[in-house]
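We give the chain.
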Amino acid sequence: MEKLIKVGLIQFESLLADIEENKNKSFKLMDKTVKLGAQIICFPEMFNTGYNLDLLGNEIYNLAVTQNSEYIKEYCQYAKNNNVHIILPLTIKDERENIFNSALMIDNKGKIKGKYDKTHLFLHEKKYYQAGNNFTIFNIDNIKIGILICYDLGFPEAARYLTLKGADIIFVPSAWRIQDYDIWDLNTRQRALENNIFIVGVNRVGKEADLHLFGNSRIIDPNGEIMMEAPRDEETIIVKELDLSKISKYRNYYQYLKARRNDLYGDFK
């Protein structure tokens, strides 16, 4: 039986430290994505601030927003008005003024279903951010969605955990640099293949001083094949319908999950 969903990837070029301008621009791009039929939209990592923490420094604390802020409520209202789900990756501040590299899951009724906080912090992120401690599955229209953020994708255990919890799709909002393009290609395809799952990688585009974020956002099918990808170094939108019945087809063939030797893996099950 077919189980279909149209995903929209917005390969975004951010204006560093200008959260209002990036918000205004994001609504215009969402309008285009919705018109293309997307049922769920995902932005890249830290799209509303830019990523280069060497440039942002402590200003990232001032740019952080709380989960119940008016800034977030505007996206919730947009989701409700346009009957679309939104994955919103940005810096979230808690009541203790700690900040997290997070992604909010907003449903098409305008409700925040929850958030995922990046669990594996990359290099300089550790200076500013608190690491998350939970992997979450979001049920959207009876489709189970997991979220990992950028560097998280390099840890097979994270994607496997979400898979074992029933995820059909893992979205990966990212700010991946050009020096690691080969790792982007390998990680997106390998995580999809070894779990026989859809991976939707949404990467930033643009340059922030010496940081070159190259784009090449992509959708990988459960066979590890690239279904669709965006060009490098160009702000763009891609929308693609996914047939989730492919998951069982490839799992029945490869049996990576069924053939696992839990008796040999110790505590990792």
